[in-house]
Amino acid sequence: MLYHFVLASKARNTLPLEEDRLVKEIYGKMVCETIEEVLNPAWCAVLPIDLQNDFMHADGAVGRAGGDLTAMEELLPKAVSFLNQTRELGIRIVHVRIVDLPDGESDSPAWIRAKGLISNVHAFAVEGTWGAQFSEGCEPRPGELVVTKHRSSAFVGTNLDLLLKNNGVKTVVIIGEQTPGCVEATYRDAAYYDFYNVLVEDCVAGRDRELHEASIKIQKARHDVVTMDQVFSIWRRYREGSLTAPALSGVPQLIG
């Protein structure tokens, strides 16, 4: 005995790339087939990763330790613009920040060593300090959720998975820093926690450009990687009504 779901017919005024735009049934589960479906604003959340002073500002811990923040200086205005446009379109934002507790209380010996290898410091974004604060223009607005983490992935030791799923989020859109570090860790884990994951390649950055580019190349072979223009084009088309999500009838029909 087989079941299938009836999909609503497509709007006549849909734009190119929509001719085959139908979710696909696999093992009885409806799977998004196109990036337009994945980026349905009704179920998206933007996760800005670690846009904090110690990582973005020359006077922060990483900059003082000799880290090259050129790419962070280029990223900051893009991130501010991305967040503002996201708010204008009514898309959910869940801010992600990393902090150390004072006196290493959140650190293991292994993590202290890892931080030294990653950033040439043993402490950064210590809770309650300027370095832990969000960079100017990236601060959360009233009503926007904030998740605090102590490791690279925003899913490790946090309530991020619970907050996203309890608010109907199916797709996470990742921006922020560092591309080969906290960005990639969160981006990969999103898939393992059963979210569609989308990386915005021109709104993430790494201090080492070769590692940044290598990370982007790897992710393009595994998950969805898009540009800022692509994201906002799709979201605006939804908001204007020229792009609509395929609706499920909600009632299974019996076949045979």
Order of helical and strand elements: EEEHEHHHEHEHEHEHEHE
- The total number of structural domains is 1
The unreliable regions are: 1-20, 248-256
Helix and strand composition category = alpha/beta
Oligomer: single chain
Helix-strand layout with pairing:
Layout: E1 2-4, E2 24-26, E3 29-31, H1 35-38, E4 44-49, H2 53-56, H3 61-64, H4 70-88, E5 92-98, H5 109-119, E6 145-149, H6 160-166, E7 171-177, H7 179-192, E8 196-205, H8 209-220, E9 224-226, H9 228-240, E10 253-255
Parallel strand pairs: 4-5, 4-7, 5-6, 7-8, 8-9
Antiparallel strand pairs: 1-10, 2-3
Could you describe the 3D structure shown?
This protein has 256 residues and is α/β, with parallel strands linked by helices. It has one domain (2-255): 3-Layer(aba) Sandwich (Rossmann fold). The protein is built from nine helices and ten strands. A hairpin with a 2-residue loop joins strand 2 (24-26) and strand 3. The protein is globular, with a radius of gyration of 20 Å. Mean pLDDT is 89; it is low at 1-20 and 248-256.
